[in-house]
Amino acid sequence: MDANERSLHFIEEIIENDLAENPAKKVHTRFPPEPNGYLHIGHAKSICLNFGIGAKYNGLTNLRFDDTNPTTEDTEYVDSIKADIRWLGFDWEDREYYASDYFDTLYGFAQKLIKKGLAYVDDSNADEIAEMKGNPTSPGVESPYRNRTIEENLDLFERMKQGEFADGSRVLRAKIDMSSPNMHMRDPVMYRIKKAHHHRTGDDWCIYPMYDFAHGQSDSVEEITYSLCTLEFENHRPLYDWFIKELEIFPSRQIEFARLNVSYMITSKRRLLKLVEEGYVSGWDDPRMPTIAGLRRRGYTPASLRVFSEKVGVAKRDNLIELALLEFCIREDLNKKAERVMVVLDPVKLVIENYPEDQMEYLETENNPEDEAAGVRKLAFGRELYIERSDWMENPPKKYFRLGPDRTVRLKSAYIIHCHSFSTDAEGQVSEIKCTYYPNSKSGEDVSGIQAKGTLHWVSKREAISGEIRLYENLFTDAEPTNHEDKDFLEFINPDSLKVLKDAKFEPSLSNVPAERHFQFLRTGYFVTDPDSKPGYPVFNRIVGLKDSWSKKKQ
Ligand code: ATP
Ligand code: MG
Questions:
Q1: Which residues are catalytic?
Q2: What is the mean pLDDT of residues 427-434?
Q3: Is residue 60 part of a domain?
Q4: What's this model's pTM, rounded to 2 decimal places?
Q5: Please, which of 19, 139, 196, 478 could form a disulfide with 179 given CB 3.0 to 4.6 Å?
């Protein structure tokens, strides 16, 4: 879907109204991640929204790292965030900023408020401050330090910066209104002492601005006109507006939209970190993770994520998007682009007894019926093949169109075969299927007149290469694992979310495929090469199966 084909969402409406009034108004947005984890599907939505609006209105979009909390932030995260945004297809050009670039400016802003009598150093500890704040239905209590003189406040704040005081012993607070119905206006903390090493400013600072005193001001410094953020910041807006007014700085406008939530996925960096640290997944890029890195390794394409983000729209209220929509988007994308190949996930040997032992032939098959330009390739065909174990049943029901004793099927792009016997192993599992083929039934030249209802995929035993297939299910057994008051989300971990098949049989063309190549394996789904692949031993991840549960539901 093209952005121009749908009606405007509410943020575009606001912008277009502004532009109608003032055509010279600049549209300048930013994506402001905190580098304390990898980006997830929700961030992808925010990236597409911010960069999308920047591009649509001939504006600009900055990348700004909100790095005001030295203890949780790391350059590994900075690097991964940049890689993810680029991979999604967006470019911040030379506008890569850091809130830490503004530490001097922010310090100056704080001094300005002190000088206006609008900020003070409080010697109370965190518990005392929380206690004095009161609760939404009753007013708070003013701190005994609230009426210090400007000179004393300036001196103490400077000495906080010099490192004279211990962590947690003092904070700088805005002097606003301890009886405001909005808790964020009850003298919020602006600065705290934290003797911690910062990933960019090193040990230059031992006081750090709170998010609420850094975020809005950073927007102002960069002259961001539309500061788009998620709904939880709606209550913070009066505070940001107060800072803008009292500091007399650039008036960025904050607009809140609903967070993206997707069923069976979680979108909280803190919880995702827990999955990584406690070993529930193999890392931030585990293909079951809702991180951009995980989705990428799973085989989602940038285009599929951009289309998804467009389709979910921009809401003002929280809602839950079905995972099936995301899966629909990748199927749509890959159906057009992905080459079809034959891979047998769980092989069983099939022998065509009337096919000469030393004979091989090369049969033509199309690479993508949806795309003529994709061309054709040759498949080796011989006496011994592999077919899918699940395509065989010893005692099949009537409507079963696959293979069984005395059944007839077509082998894709090859011949019709008839099964006349089979052998089993010690456990009674089929180990070899014996068939005959009809030489005059070759695909495209079939004159046999024989009816075969089912068509099976296969690979030639002699030419096939072995490799690994990783099949994934949802990481959680519940659609909203974080939405249970009485249960931790970890209780809903799906123990069967990964199934590894170590002896899959591939067409030889798949033996050395570069990373991140997408294919449709006939009848079994869309797959992508995993970076764990080795020359001659491919490893593929299943992205999704072929069956679409989204369009069906819509009908
Ligand atoms: P988390 O709760 O996962 O830590 P966050 O909001 O604290 O998320 P930030 O790095 O601060 O993470 O987010 C960067 C930007 O992405 C913010 O503007 C934030 O509002 C937006 N964002 C985060 N999560 C979502 C989401 N689920 N849907 C849409 N936007 C999101
Ligand atoms: Mg945040």
A1: 34, 259, 269
A2: 96
A3: yes
A4: 0.94
A5: 139
